[in-house]
Amino acid sequence: MKKYYLWIWLLLVLPIVSNAQISHGPTIHVGYQGSGIKPAEMNEFVSTFNQHYEGVIPKRLKSYSIFPSHGFNAGIGYRFFKRESGGFTGYAGYSYAQTRNTNSATFKNGIGYDFGMKLRDHFFYLEAGAGIRGRFFINGCLDFLFRKTTIRSSTVYQDGTKSIGSEYDINGMYTGTTNAFAPGISLGGRVWHFFIVSRLLYTVPIVKSSLYMTDYSVLRFRSHDFPQDFEEFLVDVTGENQENGIKSDGFNGLLLQLNVEFMIPFKKK
Amino acid sequence: MKNKIAVFFACALLSMFSCDKSDNMRNRFLGTWDVKLFQREYITQEGSEVLFSKQDAGYITFEAPFEGEAGQELDFSGSLEQESGTSEIEGSGQIDDEASRWIIYNGECSGFIGCDLTYTITKATTRKLEMFTMAYSGTPGEHYKLTLKMSK
Question: Is the residue at B13 inside a domain?
């Protein structure tokens, strides 16, 4: 895979070397991001949780969609874009994104549970494509992503206190990481020094792993993994079943970005 | 222009890799704190009742187990006025990876597993620390809440 990266870098650098008439410069951007997951494992947790508390849970947990987590991203980059005509365009950059989702349930006695999902992404963009009339561009993306996922599992008491303490075994901060390729497509347009950029990517873990979302900070009898089957988790008081966990690989999938980018107008000598 | 671009990217890279959240939080804990409020409440479906509340209840000193060592481990000692009177406290624990809990090893009992006491951190600045821990009362749906507010 390193070879492909080298070729794409060469494609990006070649126009500068050949002194082609290209507008280029550093950029900063902010924007919206929707992060997708493969929700099957999380939805098994939801259905077994709701099933276990059937009859005493007026507000049930909701099923997760393929786009459960939304938030913002911001970053920097370097864009190549011919303002005079079409031709080669390219972009290399970095972005940090944080997207969240909260799923909560409340019991008849006023106590509830909050399951907060937080996805923190470090993006490295590498994109190349074609410009259209000096106004628009379409790029193919071969982006790269480091993702840290956290599930904050807390008990919510009648007075609104949210505890992630050890009074209940399911409480905790469960974390997992994935490194993923994010191939996809990027479309955009230019207005003055601003670019409106949209990206549709699909994140694919580089190495398939069976690592679970874990919380090792507190030593407990039950499993340290966030459970896939909640009823199995409750029954397995000694944590013998080491495979009843949500895998961190599942927090990958479709990804949508809509960014506003500003090209810093450094004066050319 | 090249210098400006280099500085631009260097600053961005530095900001990306310069912080370790839990280590920073551990450093924020270090030192001696005055306990401004130590309070025990009973929380039920009907509301909450304060069972014990003491302002200026003593002090707690946090220190790294080995001076200058990075990490999340944190020893503590101090004096705290509780319902049963003033007592000396000491122990060890850690700040978790997400800097959201203070976990006291064997805070509830003295076994290897299942004995840690966990405080949920609600505020942690350089001057103020606020946290609480919950405990099951034995009656379904009713709990004790222990709140600790400290300042420097």
Answer: no
Residue B63 lies in a domain: yes
Q: Which of B143, B144, B148 to mutate to test the interface with A (most CBs of A within 10 A)?
A: B143
Name the residue of chain A whose CA is nearest to B137's CA: A167
Name the phi and psi angles at A135, rounded to 5.
-120, -40
Within a domain: B12: no
Contact check, Cβ <8 Å, B1/A220: no
The structural domain count of chain B equals: 1
CATH classification at residue B109: 2.40.128.20
**Domain range for B98:** 20-151
Q: What is the pTM of this model?
A: 0.85
Segments of chain A assigned E as strands: 23-35, 69-81, 87-106, 112-132, 136-156, 162-163, 172-191, 194-202, 204-205, 254-263
Per residue in A84-110, pLDDT tens? 777 889 999 999 999 999 999 999 999
Residue B3 lies in a domain: no
Beta partners for residue A103, in sequence order = A115
Residue with tokens 């909450």: B48
Q: What is the pLDDT of residues A4-48, one digit of tens each?
A: 554 554 444 444 444 444 578 999 999 999 999 999 999 999 999
The Cα angle at residue A152 between residues A216 and B22, in degrees rounded to 5: 60
* Residue labelled with tokens 């949920």: B120
